[in-house]
TrEMBL record:
Gene3D superfamilies: Phosphoglycerate mutase-like. GO terms for cellular component: plasma membrane. The lineage of its organism: Eukaryota, Metazoa, Chordata, Craniata, Vertebrata. Its EC number is 3.1.3.2. GO terms for molecular function: acid phosphatase activity. The chain crosses the membrane at residues 369-392. This is acid phosphatase.
C-alpha cells in the first residue's frame, strides 16, 4: 500500500484513537510507523494528526415540546395536550434518545460503555422538558449491560440528572435575570436602528385570524421573527457587553472545565448540559459562531479537548443541528478549527467577566447592610455626644440654682 492510497484512512485516525489505546488505534499507528520508516516520506503534519481526546462538553436543546402559550383564537386549548403546555412530547423523547445513541457511537472508544459517575456528569435546567430530555438522552447513551441490568424486562437504568433551581441557575437558564445593566441594554436594543431596520419587513403580520395568517409565507416570517428575537436578545446592540453579562458566563464555565481536564490526571471525561434554544443562542453569540438560525429541537454543541502529539492542548467545536448529517465544524474567529487552548482562552477573554454582579450594576446587599450599620453607629455616637453635653450643661445649671448666699 502506498502512502497516497493509505491517506484516506488518516482522516479517521482522530476518531479511532479517541481515549484509551484500542486495538484499532494501535494497528493504525503501527502501520503509519512502518510506512514512515520505509521509503515513504511522512511530513510533520501527517504525524501531528495523532491526538488524544481528554474531555468532551456537550450542550443540547431539549426535544420537541407542546406550545408554551397559545394565541387567543387558538381552538386547541391547553387541556387538549396530555401534559399541558411546554412539555416534552414523544417525538421529543425519541429525538433525545437518538442523540444519546449518536453520542455513544461518536465516542465509543473514549467513553466507557457502562455508566461511571466519576467520568460522566449531566445537568439540566429546572424545567420538566429539559429534565425529561436529559433522561431520554441517557437512555440512548447508557443502556444497561451485564451487571448494570437490574430488570431483564426493562433495558434502562436510573442515572442522576443534576438540577439547579431557576432562582439560583446562573449558568444555563438564559437570559440570566437580576442584571439591571442587561435590562438597560435590552431596552436600548429595541430602539436601536439595527433592530428597527431588521424588524420593519415583518411589521404587517399581526391581527389576522387563524385561517388567513396560517400560510407558509406568514409562518416563514414568524420563524424569521423568532430568529431576530433571539439575536436581539444577546446581540445586535453592544454584543460584547451583552455577552459578558449572558453567554460569556457559560463560556467561562466551559473554559474552566476544559482547563481543569487539561491540568488533571483524574478528570471527568464528559459533561452534558440539557437546556434551551436561548442557552445555545447565548453561547454561540458570545463565541461569535452563531449562524443566525434558531437552534432546532435536540440541536447540540460539542466542545472537544485534545492533546496533540507535541503535548499542546487544542479545542474543537462541532454543531449538530441536523440528525441526517454529521455535525458542522465551527471555527472560533481568529483561530483554526483545532484551536490551541491558550489561544482559545485569549480570544474568548473579552466576553468573560470576573465580577458579574458588579458589571450588572447590582447592589451589594451585604455592603448596604454594613453601610447602614456604620451610619447607625455614627448616629448613635453623635447622640451620645449630645446626651453627654446636655447632662454636663444641665448639671452645671442645677448646681448654680441650688447655691444660696449666707
Amino acid at each position: 500500500m502506498t502512502f497516497k492510497t493509505f491517506l484516506p484512512e488518516l482522516h479517521n485516525i482522530k476518531y479511532i484513537c479517541r481515549g484509551e489505546k484500542t486495538d484499532e488505534c494501535s494497528l493504525l499507528l503501527s502501520s503509519i510507523i512502518v510506512l514512515c520508516s520505509g521509503k515513504v516520506s511522512c511530513s510533520l503534519h501527517m504525524v501531528s494528526i495523532f491526538v488524544l481526546i481528554l474531555c468532551v462538553l456537550i450542550v443540547f436543546r431539549h426535544g420537541d415540546r407542546t406550545p408554551v402559550v397559545n394565541f387567543p383564537t387558538d381552538p386547541h386549548k391547553e387541556s387538549e395536550w396530555p401534559q399541558g403546555f411546554g412539555q416534552l412530547t414523544k417525538t421529543g423523547m425519541q429525538q433525545l434518545f437518538k442523540l444519546g445513541q449518536y453520542t455513544r457511537e461518536r465516542y465509543s472508544n473514549f467513553l466507557n460503555s457502562t455508566y461511571n459517575r466519576q467520568e460522566f456528569y449531566i445537568q439540566s435546567t429546572d424545567y420538566d422538558r429539559t429534565i425529561m430530555s436529559a433522561q431520554s438522552y441517557l437512555s440512548g447513551l447508557f443502556p444497561p449491560t451485564s451487571s448494570q441490568i437490574w430488570n431483564p424486562e426493562l433495558l434502562w437504568q436510573p442515572i442522576p440528572v443534576h438540577v439547579l433551581q431557576k432562582s439560583t441557575d446562573q449558568m444555563l437558564h438564559f437570559p440570566l435575570t437580576g442584571c439591571p445593566r442587561f435590562d438597560e441594554l435590552q431596552n436600548k436594543t429595541q430602539t436601536s436602528s439595527e433592530f428597527q431596520n431588521r424588524i420593519q419587513p415583518y411589521m404587517g403580520i399581526h391581527n389576522y385570524t387563524l385561517p388567513v395568517w396560517a400560510t407558509k409565507d406568514v409562518i416563514d416570517k414568524m420563524e424569521k421573527l423568532a430568529e431576530l428575537s433571539l439575536l436581539s436578545l444577546f446581540g445586535l446592540y453592544k454584543t460584547e457587553e451583552k455577552s459578558r453579562l449572558q453567554g460569556g458566563v457559560l463560556v467561562n464555565a466551559i473554559l474552566k472545565s476544559i482547563k481543569q481536564a487539561a491540568n488533571s490526571s483524574k478528570q471527568r471525561k464528559m459533561e452534558v448540559y440539557s437546556a434551551h434554544d436561548t442557552t445555545l443562542g447565548a453561547l454561540q453569540i458570545a463565541l461569535n459562531i452563531f449562524n443566525g438560525k434558531l437552534p432546532p429541537y435536540a440541536s447540540c454543541q460539542f466542545f472537544e479537548l485534545y492533546q496533540e502529539s507535541s503535548g499542546q492542548y487544542s479545542i474543537e467545536m462541532h454543531y449538530r443541528n441536523d440528525s441526517s448529517k454529521d455535525p458542522y465544524v465551527l471555527t472560533l474567529p481568529g483561530c483554526t478549527s483545532s484551536c490551541p487552548l491558550e489561544k482559545f482562552a485569549e480570544l474568548v477573554s473579552p466576553v468573560i467577566t470576573e465580577n458579574w454582579s458588579k458589571e450588572c450594576g447590582k447592589k451589594d446587599k451585604m455592603k448596604d447592610i454594613f453601610i447602614g450599620f456604620d451610619i447607625a453607629i455614627g448616629l448613635l455616637f453623635i447622640f451620645d455626644l449630645v446626651l453627654l453635653y446636655l447632662l454636663y450643661h444641665y448639671g452645671r445649671c442645677r448646681r448654680r440654682n441650688n447655691y444660696q448666699d449666707i
